[in-house]
Amino acid sequence: MSNNQFVIVSHTKELDSYKAAQFIVQETLPKIHEKNPKLAILFYSVHHDAQKIVKIISDAFNEIDIVGGTSPGYITNDTLEVDQPYVSLAVLIGDDFDVDTFYSTQIKNREFEAGLELGEHAKSSKKQQHGILFYDSVKQSVSEGAPSLNMATPLISGISQSGLGNMNLAGIGVLADPNLQKPASIVCEGNTIRNGASLSIFSGDVQLDTITLHGCSPESGYYTVTKAEGPVIIEIENKPAIEFIKEVLGEASTLEPKDYPLFLTLGVNHGDLFDDYNPNMYANRLCLAVDESVGALIMFEPDLIAGTKIQIMQRNLNFSYISIQINAMKEQLRDREIVFALYLDCIGRWSRFCGSEEEEGHFVQEAIGRDIPLFGVYSGVEISKVGNGLQALDWTGVLSLFSIPRKAI
């Protein structure tokens, strides 16, 4: 267990759902007794009976809002587990800030409308400067038929249209397992639901500062998407997308189209196209699948429309950049007290997927240290502010550092 005056973090690898939930309750509840808990963030693996977990913890915590959902793995200061049974909980506590949480019980085939509704509800909060968004990214799992996703881009477009596009927000699309074999769920008002979303808005003394960690750099010049339908890129520079990518990679490349899913990464520069490379201005898009019959790339998001300028991105598996970026943010916040670190990490960055000999999450643990409680989960899609607006991200870790004025401790 990790804790300070702002957050209590508890986790267990117990396989039995009842025992796991009881362990979390028994370890956490005494720590928040006679304090002012504002929000609980709860995640669990697909091995568990999610409804049982959520009911036991919700009943114990009474009126505390609980958000979260399914994730294939979790990270704390001293633990990193993927594809193993777990339950992990963080409870945020304090008198000098407030959290308002809003839910959408149905985003399936109406992501934009759901985002707009969430944003309109959130505008009733005292301030809309900082937020956390969780949504179910698995519209249909492999076990239910052809896998399909709920899209983050229209969801955050709806939130932005409500007037909250400049909010400092971090979020993820939850998933149950890396290969979309099973459905996921979202915690919603004491229950678990499919195809839902939650938006928690922070006001008062707490501040969220986010860092996007992707370690990708452009490997090519700019090319233009010339034909696309939803998340399917059909043509780039007026050629079938797969054919064009093969030409750019060259004959020396050993990559075949079958290797593109979960590896090929395209970047969109949201800054000046001719400025020096700035990783904080890039939103990366990961290839989900290919349709070789028409030479198309199927992406995780539908925003690479005709006219979009893209670059092929190269991944950097030397994770030393992580500590550099985190330490730079710590220095920027030196006049505030960093009290909590929330890490929302793409499952594609897990070593088994990306082929790294090292686990990038360990570099995050090392950079955060032991004094700041760390709570992290793995995800399918990440969300953060890039440039002047909110963006869905792929192959990215979004680290949010929560801080308060030193006088508030």
Report on this structure.
The protein has 409 residues and is of the alpha+beta class. It folds into two domains: 2-213 and 319-408, no CATH class; 216-315, no CATH class. It has eight helices and 29 strands. The chain has helices spanning 17-32, 50-61, 111-122, 152-164, 241-249, 320-332, 351-354, 360-368, and strands at residues 2-3, 7-12, 37-44, 65-70, 73-76, 80-82, 87-93, 97-104, 130-136, 138-140, 148-149, 168-174, 186-188, 191-193, 197-204, 207-213, 216-218, 223-229, 232-236, 239-240, 265-269, 282-291, 296-299, 309-315, 336-346, 374-379, 381-386, 389-393, 397-405. The strands form six sheets. Strands 6-5-26-25-29-16 form a six-stranded mixed sheet, covered by helices on one side. Strands 8-15-9-12-27-28 form a six-stranded mixed sheet, covered by helices on one side. The protein is globular. The two termini are 20 Å apart. The mean pLDDT is 94.
